[in-house]
Design a protein that fits this description.
The protein is mainly alpha-helical and 109 residues long. Helix content is 78%, strand content 0%.
């Protein structure tokens, strides 16, 4: 049973870490704020869930698992709200989305 928990925990931790690295590349590659906030906002919640579940499986006691669970619930609600607040502030500051210089390949909304 312990080996199965270790394998599942390792899979969850590795999946969350790989997704987090992919998100980091999205932050570097995308051209504007709105694209970058989407790359970060969409993946950070899933990364956090995967990593926290992997850590919960490795917890030694119920108390540690409960603390990780409470942290997971807190982050689950605050991370998307933070992304929304950043995007709303950028929109109110009249930060315009990126547009391509080429004709026909515009990202207008």
């Amino acid at each position: 049973m312990s080996l199965m928990l270790d394998v599942l925990s390792g899979f969850l931790l590795l999946s969350g870490s790989v997704l987090l690295i992919i998100s980091g590349f999205g932050l570097l590659r995308f051209p504007d704020f709105y694209s970058r906030i989407q790359a970060a906002g969409m993946t950070d919640t899933l990364c956090m869930i995967l990593i926290m579940l992997g850590l919960m499986l490795q917890a030694d006691s119920l108390e540690v698992g409960a603390k990780i669970l409470f942290t997971l619930v807190f982050l689950f609600f605050t991370a998307p709200a933070a992304s929304h607040a950043l995007t709303k502030t950028a929109r109110q500051s009249k930060l315009r989305p990126w547009q391509s210089d080429k004709g026909g390949e515009s990202s207008k909304s």
